[in-house]
Amino acid sequence: MMREIQHTDYENYITLAGGAIRCLRCTAKSVRSGIQCLKPAMNSSRTQKCTHHGGRSTGPKTKEGRERIAKAHTVHGKSSKAIRLRHSQDSANISMLEDSLHVLGMSDGKRLQGRKAKGYRPIRTVEQVREFLVNINLHNT
C-alpha cells in the first residue's frame, strides 16, 4: 500500500541565518514520515530540489563526454588512470621479483603479505624466473 504524496502542502520558502536569508525549499518528501526536506533548493534546479534529491548535475550525458571525463579523471589531482595502471604493473613486478629471489635462494626472509596486484603471476621455477627477467628487459628497453 503506497501513499500518494500531495503536492499542495509544500512549504515554498525556508529562512536561514536567523531570518536574514530567504530561499526556495527542497520539495522532496519522506515516504515514511511525509515530512518535507529541510534543505534549501539549488538555484540551478528546475524541479526545486537540493543536492541530495537531484538538484545537482548528474554528469556528462554523451559518450564523448564520458570518455573525456574518464581520460582526464584524477583522484585528488595526484594521479590519472594511466599512472594508477602503471603503479599496479610495477607492484606486480615487485611481487614476481620477490618470488624470483626466493626460487633462486637469494632471500630467506618473509614475503610480503596481502593481495597481489593485477597482472601478478606466481614464479615457482628457475625457467619461470628466466622468462620473467627476459620480459622485464623487453618492456624497459
Question: How is the biggest beta sheet arranged?
Answer: 2 strands, antiparallel
Q: What would the average pLDDT be, to the nearest integer?
A: 80
* First-last Cα distance: 68 Å
Order of helices and strands: EEHEEHH
**Could you say which structural class the secondary elements and strand pairing correspond to?**
alpha+beta
Strand order of the largest sheet: 1-2
- What is the general shape? elongated
Total number of β-strand segments? Answer: 4
Helix content: 25-40%
Point out poorly predicted stretches.
Answer: none
What is the count of structural domains? Answer: 2
The share of residues in extended strands comes to 5-15%
Radius of gyration: 28 Å
Number of helices: 3
Chain-wise SSE layout:
Elements: E1 13-16, E2 21-24, H1 63-72, E3 74-75, E4 79-80, H2 81-103, H3 126-140
Antiparallel strand pairs: 1-2, 3-4
Helix pairs in contact: 2-3
Features:
141 residues; alpha+beta; 2 domains; two-stranded antiparallel ribbon; 3 helices
Polypeptide structure, described:
The chain is an alpha+beta fold and 141 residues long. 34% of the residues lie in helices and 9% in strands. It folds into two domains: 1-56, no CATH class; 75-140, no CATH class. It has helices at residues 63-72, 81-103, 126-140; strands at 13-16, 21-24, 74-75, 79-80. β3 (74-75) and β4 form a beta hairpin. α2 (81-103) packs antiparallel against α3.
